[in-house]
Structure of ABC transporter ATP-binding protein:
Amino acid sequence: MTSAIRMRDVEMNFSGGRDGSSYLALRNVNLEIREGEFFCLLGPSGCGKTSLLNLIAGFVTPTRGKVESRGAAVAHPGKDRGVVFQSDRALFDWLTVEENVSFGPRMRGEPQAQWRPVVDEMLELVGLADHRRKLPRELSGGMKQRVQIARVLANSPDILLMDEPFAALDAYTRGVMQKEVTRIWDASRRTVVFVTHDIAEAIWLADRIGIMTRGPGSHIRQVFEVDLPRPRERMTTGFVELFNRLSEAIDAEAGHSAKAPLQ
Ligand SMILES: Nc1ncnc2c1ncn2[C@@H]1O[C@H](COP(=O)(O)OP(=O)(O)OP(=O)(O)O)[C@@H](O)[C@H]1O
């Protein structure tokens, strides 16, 4: 079976610092993400999670090695890979919810008869059908992130790339959005690559969790299977045991206790 994403001996060396310096963010990254799976990338702050996601998105090219999406080399961003950013500033604040969600198909010149049913379906899927005429400033943080998700899904990507999309939300909304995103993933069956530094969030969401080593020269240290039935319960033995194993792996990387209490 073709992998959704395959990275082979990938290196990312950022050069051209203002003082002429360079920084080797990633080295020897080898990673295979399966079709339809929910994969979380977890690692200490600054290890290179966003850099890795940006390579898959095609925003940057590796200084060495190969990145493939469904067997084809990734050379630039493409509509097969949709990105949901942490910040809701990614929305066009002068466009309504519906105009934001239909932006991609309209820019590609698709006729309304073609994009309308897709946009309607995505607005239903993220629970915003009744808010389609609102502007982003009239929405809560969680609603804005749902608009971003709907906008990306309206482009029918094969792969959804999410970079700490709920980091700016309060704990309650974050919990709601974690449930939402599993429901949307379940309904749309896209491959998802989700960056987080929150261990419990990763266990709640993922089929597999890739732990990254501390930089410089970060790579995938270990991949954990999350063999727990959904919906997951945070206080079950399986959840807590995996939480502790992941905490130990991350602590070993961060060089100190990164373990926040399980909530
Ligand atoms: N364009 C760039 N030029 C130079 N260095 C960069 C660039 N982008 C990232 N880096 C460096 O690469 C390293 C990894 O950054 P990255 O943002 O990928 O980490 P991260 O794991 O996503 O961090 P966090 O969890 O704090 O968001 C950092 O040391 C960062 O300073």
Summary: The first helix runs from residue 49 to 57. Residues 160 and 192 are 5 Å apart (CA to CA). The two ends are 38 Å apart (CA to CA).
